[in-house]
Design a protein that fits this description.
Length: about 80
């Protein structure tokens, strides 16, 4: 199984808008059997101060509440400047 995930090189120029047009939101989750997988859009653009937006934190909290009693796996990218 392959999962599409937005990385720091994918957001250059208009990459984020192309990605979301082709694949949907930069962050998403899904369940597989007794596990819950979360992919966070944590690649900041040049003008962004935080890697993960407040909107995404609110979504994440709501998403994890819905996934109670499942084993959670969270994926994100971290880059240094």
């Amino acid at each position: 199984m392959y999962m599409i995930y937005l990385g720091n090189h994918d957001i250059r120029r208009n990459g984020r808008s192309i990605y979301t047009e082709l694949y949907g939101p930069a962050y998403y989750s899904f369940d597989f059997q007794d596990s819950h997988f979360v992919f966070l859009g944590s690649s900041p653009g040049w003008a962004e101060i935080k890697s993960i937006s407040n909107e995404q934190y609110i979504w994440l909290e709501s998403d994890l509440i819905k996934a109670l009693r499942k084993e959670d796996f969270c994926y994100y990218t971290y880059t240094t400047n």
